[in-house]
Model the fold of this input.
Amino acid sequence: MPQRIVVIVESHSGRIAPASLEAITCAARLQELSPAPILGITLGQDAWPTAQLLAAEHGLDALAVEAEGLVGYSAEAWLALLPELLGQLAARWVLMAATSQGQDLGPALAARLNAACIGGARGLEADEDGPLFVREVHGGKLLQRLRPLSASAVVLVQPGFFAPHLAGAGPAGQATRQRMAAVARRTADLPAAGQSQAGASLADAEVIVAAGRGLGKPENLSLMRDLAALFPRSAVAGSRPVCDDGWLEYRWQVGVTGQTVSPKLYIACGISGASQHVAGMRGAGLVVAINNDPQAAIFNEADVCVVEDVVQFTPALIASLRALKG
Done:
């Protein structure tokens, strides 16, 4: 059996996750460098509609892996089903999006497969020895190129760096269905909690003022709120470290494990620019970054770069904007 490129596809409420569509694009580029058939795998109690969607609209050969009681994502169940299946499929490359689900599943799956695990892949290159995966290190200040030395590899594709795979881009693929025995589990699924309406305001905001650890202490968030108040339809957001530290609730987090936003104006205050955060705000129209480190990775994404201490600069910015507004 020829070796394959396998994409583990996430879906939510019957829709393929955008980050998984980016992983499919990465797989297509990998196929150019390391020729092999691509197979999309979707798992669930009723995974067949998603597999059909992958085949009909995205031209991907797809496999629906179904088991009774497999409702939603379960690392315990997926790890019980996938290793043997991937071995049978001769999977050389196993790709998935570097979402919270992918970051939970990927390393454990690689360990079960005795495979390499490459996290945060944001690009692909090649040399005479084959594909190289590119990822950011040291907070995005450097790029690292990796080649797995093992027979197989699990690759977590960083959202925001590959264009989502377009529907109708080629002929339809073939969808197949495989029923598997129910997995004996020691954990149970709980109903997903719906997001509050307040949290949804980040997606609707035209201006977002995002706070990072560069603010120094949570009391300085008042500066962010004062700045945001100068704009209609604005909101204050935070990086993951800010939310991890309890300065803001997680519903205000921007990034891979938070929300993805596309405001007209994004003001990044004291944010270093780690790829996990940048992936959530890459769709912003105009990006203004304020950071006292001239080498901060966020400046690679910004249209306007301000090298200043954010706590000292923001009051002056607020005063100037208020003066302009009269």
